[in-house]
Write a structure and sequence with these properties.
Elements: H1 2-20, E1 25-36, E2 40-51, H2 54-74, E3 82-94, E4 99-112, H3 118-128, E5 132-139, H4 143-168, E6 173-186, H5 194-202, E7 216-228
Antiparallel strand pairs: 1-7, 2-4, 2-5, 3-4, 6-7
Helix pairs in contact: 2-3, 3-5
Length: about 230
């Protein structure tokens, strides 16, 4: 019985000691960045009208949206790249005039895969009756491929850092035992002027440029833990 107790005690002690022994490691963060000029854009636009008769407001919004969709179709943009985001009709009270009025709005997004048509698209949307631009987001069609490139760069950067730290100590790194990833992409924020765009749509000079594309930055950060030899 005493022998069994002794064996159990030794086993428990061995486990406790092994748990208290820390494995030497080196933890580093690696960063990978890939930049590219965008080749597609998603435009979010809205039609908004105010008035006292909700039925008339809805009819007016429907008429404008119909014109907008016909124009988009004439631009050879696929139906799958056009999406209605929301349709709203709100009743508001004006405390100064003590009256109610209605606001009807409808939002749609258009994904344009041919940026050479961007100016024509924006001018046509304004001519069709769009009176609010909610957002413009540029992207790259090969974004997943770019993410893979950024990941490889991040891992190589982490390995290089770890080797530098270990080399100073006359040591070396072993295999990676943990990897965690943080991905972030930064799109360019184009500057646009609605009044300029309206002027462009009314002008015969179709070469007028209202945006500068810039570059998209695909950025990946990885935290890697290496064994330290």
């Amino acid at each position: 019985m005493k022998t069994l107790k002794t064996i159990l005690f030794l086993l428990v002690s061995t486990v406790v000691i092994s748990q208290n022994i820390q494995t030497p490691t080196v933890d580093v963060a690696g960063e990978g960045i890939v930049t590219v000029v965008p080749d597609e854009v998603t435009v979010s636009v809205q039609v908004e009208n105010k008035g006292e008769n909700p039925k008339e407001l809805k009819r007016e919004n429907d008429r404008i949206i119909n014109d907008v969709l016909l124009f988009i179709k004439s631009m050879k943009i696929k139906n799958s790249d056009v999406k209605t985001q929301y349709i709203r009709l709100n009743k508001n009270y004006d405390y100064q005039t003590k009256t109610y009025h209605y606001v009807a709005n409808q939002s749609i997004t258009i994904k344009l895969k041919d940026l050479s048509k961007y100016e024509a698209l924006m001018n046509g949307l304004l001519e069709s009756g769009i009176n609010r631009i909610e957002g413009i987001s540029f992207s790259a069609s090969n974004k997943e491929q770019l993410k893979s490139q950024a990941r490889i760069k991040a891992i190589l950067n982490a390995k290089e850092k770890a080797e530098q730290y270990a080399g100073v100590l006359n040591q070396s790194i072993g295999k990676a035992i943990t990897i965690s990833e943080f991905t972030n992409s930064t799109s360019p924020t184009p500057k646009y002027d609605i009044s300029m765009m309206k002027a462009s749509s009314e002008s015969s000079n179709s070469s007028q440029q209202t945006i500068s594309l810039g570059e998209i930055e695909i950025r990946t950060v990885v935290n890697v833990r290496f064994l330290l030899n």
